[in-house]
C-alpha cells in the first residue's frame, strides 16, 4: 500500500513503536478521555487493592490505536504488579500457554493482545485458568492420556481485542469487566496532542492542535503521528510555527481529508457509491472492490465511517448514507439512507 495511506492507518508501524512507548501515559490519572471506562476501571482496581486480592479479569475492546495496550500496562502499574505480555497468535499450542501460566507470580498481570486469535486448545486451557486458577496438563496420548491438575498463582488476565464479536461466549463471560473503548472527541485529542507536544518539545498553538485533532480519525495514535508530520512540515516551511494554515497545508499534502478520512476510508465510500449505487452490498464484495481483505475493511475502515454517520450496516449489507454522497461531492439520490423524508 502507498505510504500516504500509512500516515492515517491506525496500526502502528515498526519505527513508531519506540515513540509510542515514550508517549504512552503510565498511570490512570494521565490517561485522557474514555471517561466511563476510566471510572469503572479505577473502581475495579481500587477495590481489589483494598481487598488485597487480584481484581477480576479485564477485557479491552475497541478499534486499533485507541489505547488498549496503554490501558493494560496501566492496570499493572496501578496494581503495582508485574506484567507479562503475550499475544493470541503466539499461543498456538496449549503448551505455549501452560508454560506462561505455570510461571506466573502471585498477582501478576497477564496481558494477551489480540486474544481473539488464540488457538482453540489454548483457549480451553485459559477457561479453567481464569476460573479456578488451575491448568490440566495432559500426559500421554489417545485413550491412555491423563490430565494432571496443576494449581497456578492467582493472576489477573487483561485481554485486548479489536474484534470482541469473534470471542467465544465462554471466554467473554469469564471477564468480570469489559472496557469498551470508543473513538475520542476532538477536544480529547487536543489534550492528547498538548501532552505529546510537551514531551516532544514542540510548540503547539491551540489552532494547530485543533486542526490536527479534528483530522485524527478519533484515534490518539493517529493524532500523535500527524503531530510529528506537521511538526516536520512546519520546521521546513514555517520556522516551526504550527498555526491553522500550516497544519492544514501539511495535512493536505499528506492527503488526510478535512474529516480525517484516509485513503482506505475514501476508497470504501467511493466504491460503495460509484460501483454499487450506494448499496446495499455485502462486506466481501465491497472488500474485493477496494482490493483489501474483508477483515481490514471491517476492522479498520468501517467503525469510523459508521461513527461519522457515513456508512450503515444493515441486514442486507453495507449502505452509504446521504451524508456520504455529500462528503464525496455527489448528489444523494432521493431515497438515500438517512436522507430527510419528503412528503
Ligand atoms: N487516552 C490516551 N491518552 C494519551 N495517549 C494515548 C491514549 N490512548 C492512546 N494513546 C497513545 O496512542 C498510542 C496507541 O495506543 P495503544 O498502543 O494503547 O493502542 P491499542 O488500542 O493497543 O492499538 P492496537 O489495537 O493497534 O494494539 C500510544 O502510544 C499512546 O501514546
Ligand atoms: Mg495494542
Automatic annotation (TrEMBL):
Keyword flag DNA damage: yes
Top-level taxon of the source organism: Bacteria
Catalytic activity as recorded in UniProt: ATP + H2O = ADP + phosphate + H(+)
UniProt-listed SUPFAM superfamilies: P-loop containing nucleoside triphosphate hydrolases (SSF52540), Winged helix' DNA-binding domain (SSF46785)
Region (Head domain (RuvB-H)) location: 258-343
Molecular function as annotated in GO: helicase activity
Top-level EC class: hydrolase
Segments of this protein annotated with the region Small ATPAse domain (RuvB-S): 185-255
Binding site for Mg(2+): 69
InterPro entries linked: AAA+_ATPase (IPR003593), AAA_lid_4 (IPR041445), DNA_helicase_Holl-junc_RuvB (IPR004605), P-loop_NTPase (IPR027417), RuvB-like_N (IPR008824), RuvB_wg_C (IPR008823), WH-like_DNA-bd_sf (IPR036388), WH_DNA-bd_sf (IPR036390)
Gene3D superfamilies in alphabetical order: 1.10.8.60, P-loop containing nucleotide triphosphate hydrolases, Winged helix-like DNA-binding domain superfamily/Winged helix DNA-binding domain
Location(s) in or outside the cell: Cytoplasm
Domain AAA+ ATPase as annotated: residue spans: 54-185
Signal sequence bounds: none
SMART domains in the cross-refs: AAA
Key word DNA damage present: yes
Binding site for ATP: 23-24, 65, 68-70, 131-133, 174, 184, 221
Family indicated by similarity: Belongs to the RuvB family.
Domain remarks in the Swiss-Prot or TrEMBL record: Has 3 domains, the large (RuvB-L) and small ATPase (RuvB-S) domains and the C-terminal head (RuvB-H) domain. The head domain binds DNA, while the ATPase domains jointly bind ATP, ADP or are empty depending on the state of the subunit in the translocation cycle. During a single DNA translocation step the structure of each domain remains the same, but their relative positions change.
Subunit structure: Homohexamer. Forms an RuvA(8)-RuvB(12)-Holliday junction (HJ) complex. HJ DNA is sandwiched between 2 RuvA tetramers; dsDNA enters through RuvA and exits via RuvB. An RuvB hexamer assembles on each DNA strand where it exits the tetramer. Each RuvB hexamer is contacted by two RuvA subunits (via domain III) on 2 adjacent RuvB subunits; this complex drives branch migration. In the full resolvosome a probable DNA-RuvA(4)-RuvB(12)-RuvC(2) complex forms which resolves the HJ.
PANTHER family documented for this protein: HOLLIDAY JUNCTION BRANCH MIGRATION COMPLEX SUBUNIT RUVB, PTHR42848
Protein name: Holliday junction branch migration complex subunit RuvB
Species of origin: Nonomuraea rosea
Gene: ruvB
Amino acid at each position: 500500500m502507498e505510504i500516504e495511506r500509512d500516515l492515517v492507518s491506525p496500526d502502528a508501524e515498526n519505527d513508531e513503536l519506540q515513540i509510542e512507548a515514550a508517549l504512552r501515559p503510565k498511570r490512570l490519572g494521565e490517561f485522557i478521555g474514555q471517561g466511563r471506562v476510566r471510572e469503572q476501571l479505577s473502581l475495579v482496581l481500587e477495590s481489589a487493592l483494598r481487598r488485597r486480592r487480584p481484581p477480576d479479569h479485564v477485557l479491552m475492546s475497541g478499534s486499533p490505536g485507541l489505547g488498549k495496550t496503554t490501558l493494560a500496562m496501566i492496570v499493572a502499574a496501578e496494581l503495582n504488579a508485574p506484567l507479562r505480555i503475550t499475544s493470541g497468535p503466539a499461543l498456538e499450542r496449549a503448551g505455549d500457554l501452560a508454560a506462561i501460566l505455570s510461571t506466573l507470580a502471585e498477582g501478576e498481570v497477564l496481558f494477551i493482545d489480540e486474544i481473539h486469535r488464540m488457538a482453540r486448545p489454548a483457549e480451553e486451557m485459559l477457561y479453567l485458568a481464569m476460573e479456578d486458577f488451575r491448568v490440566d496438563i495432559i500426559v500421554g496420548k489417545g485413550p491412555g492420556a491423563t490430565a494432571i491438575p496443576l494449581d497456578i498463582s492467582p493472576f489477573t488476565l487483561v485481554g485486548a481485542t479489536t474484534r470482541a464479536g469473534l470471542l467465544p461466549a465462554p471466554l467473554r463471560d469469564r471477564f468480570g469487566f469489559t472496557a469498551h473503548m470508543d473513538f475520542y472527541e476532538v477536544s480529547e485529542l487536543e489534550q492528547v496532542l498538548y501532552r505529546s507536544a510537551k514531551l516532544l518539545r514542540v510548540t503547539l498553538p491551540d489552532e494547530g492542535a485543533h486542526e490536527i485533532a479534528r483530522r485524527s480519525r478519533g484515534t490518539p495514535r493517529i493524532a500523535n503521528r500527524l503531530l510529528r508530520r506537521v511538526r516536520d512540515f512546519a520546521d521546513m516551511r514555517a520556522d516551526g510555527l504550527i498555526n491553522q494554515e500550516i497544519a492544514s497545508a501539511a495535512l493536505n499534502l499528506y492527503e488526510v481529508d478535512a474529516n480525517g478520512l484516509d485513503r482506505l476510508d475514501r476508497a470504501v465510500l467511493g466504491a460503495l457509491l460509484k460501483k454499487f449505487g450506494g448499496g446495499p452490498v455485502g462486506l466481501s464484495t465491497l472488500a474485493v472492490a477496494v482490493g483489501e481483505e474483508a477483515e481490514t475493511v471491517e476492522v479498520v475502515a468501517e467503525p469510523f465511517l459508521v461513527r461519522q454517520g457515513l456508512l450503515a450496516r444493515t441486514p442486507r449489507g453495507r449502505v452509504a448514507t446521504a451524508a456520504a454522497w455529500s462528503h464525496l461531492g455527489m448528489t444523494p439520490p432521493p431515497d438515500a439512507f438517512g436522507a430527510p423524508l419528503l412528503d
